[in-house]
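Q: Given only this backbone (340 positions), what sequence would you predict?
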């Protein structure tokens, strides 16, 4: 089986995150199963693939999916599209789209879901939104939870990070730095607790005001806050950082999932996150949930996780049930179904 992977999300071209990790780890998992996967190069103009798998369903990829279907190439789309917008807004956009003489963002996204052979949702919540907001029939949706490189994080050597930075038992956040990801709220929430706080991730070029605020707070609190910049996903120091930390905190305004929560638990480190429905669908009450907009809630939840450690059964669940190998198994079966 010869499959092409494609991802185009302009906001993360220079600040790759969970979507890019999902694509690369899925590629590895499928290749272990004998599926030939190539990252599609637009300059090659090749179309001799049995199937295209498009990661993401932002309006920018609408014409790409439409062109593939006009060429007769089967297309699977991983939606990666959970939204926190209220239902009434989506219904309003759907009504507005019917009277607009030009394509709207809503229409372009609808065309992606209409023309793809199968839509992959990462959770039941995402599946319900695709049905309710865009009218995607249930027969076209398959739910495939996200995975984690469990062995890598489980076997990481914390001494690699400890010996380099002299830090251990801290609170960690691995994420692109922006107001949406909540780094500034986390600093303000933990001020005065006596905990060390470590940030890893690129600065978001699309949020200069947010990154300036963050860097100012890091400088003002340099005795207990450390920003290490970016670490490549494959860098052993990244896995070691998870292992050396005591808590990973992700107080984002919203998340389509938050793969860093799985990486944290795979390393045996407690995870604190906002209660994003796609995440709760998969992990239920196996992690600590905070109100990401309340500094009081963030503080109390992080302190509880710091004291108690990972929730009972959470580490074992992630290491055994949410592996990339299982993702590869599910996707191979979906590809075969489409090709039949």
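A: Predicted residues:
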């Amino acid at each position: 089986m010869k499959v092409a992977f494609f991802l185009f999300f302009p906001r993360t071209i220079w600040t790759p995150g969970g979507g890019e990790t999902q694509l690369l780890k899925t590629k590895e998992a499928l290749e272990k199963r004998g599926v030939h996967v190539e990252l599609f190069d637009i300059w090659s103009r090749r179309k001799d693939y049995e199937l295209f798998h498009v990661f993401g369903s932002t309006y920018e990829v609408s014409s790409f999916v439409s062109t593939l279907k006009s060429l007769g190439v089967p297309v699977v789309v991983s939606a990666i599209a959970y939204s926190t917008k209220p239902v009434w807004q989506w219904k309003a956009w759907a009504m507005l789209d019917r009277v607009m003489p030009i394509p709207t963002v809503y229409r372009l996204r609808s065309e992606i879901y209409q023309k793809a052979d199968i839509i992959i949702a990462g959770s039941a919540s995402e599946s319900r939104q695709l049905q309710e907001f865009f009218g995607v029939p249930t027969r076209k949706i398959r739910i495939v939870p996200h995975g984690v490189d469990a062995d890598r994080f489980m076997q990481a050597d914390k001494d690699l990070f400890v010996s380099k930075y002299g830090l251990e038992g801290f609170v960690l956040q691995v994420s692109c730095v922006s107001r949406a990801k909540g780094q500034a709220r986390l600093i303000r929430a933990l001020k005065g607790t006596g905990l060390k706080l470590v940030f890893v991730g690129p600065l978001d070029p699309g949020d200069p005001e947010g990154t300036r605020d963050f860097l100012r707070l890091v400088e003002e609190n340099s005795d207990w806050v450390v920003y290490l910049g970016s670490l490549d996903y494959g860098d052993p120091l990244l896995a070691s950082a998870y292992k050396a930390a005591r808590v990973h905190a992700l107080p984002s305004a919203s998340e389509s999932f938050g793969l860093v929560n799985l990486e944290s638990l795979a390393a045996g480190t407690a995870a604190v996150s906002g209660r994003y429905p796609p995440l709760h669908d998969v992990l239920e009450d196996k992690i600590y949930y905070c109100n990401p907009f309340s500094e009081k809630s963030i503080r109390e939840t992080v302190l509880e996780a710091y004291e108690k450690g990972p929730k009972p059964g959470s580490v074992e669940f992630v290491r055994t049930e949410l592996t990339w190998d299982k993702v590869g198994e599910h996707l191979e079966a979906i590809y075969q179904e489409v090709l039949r």
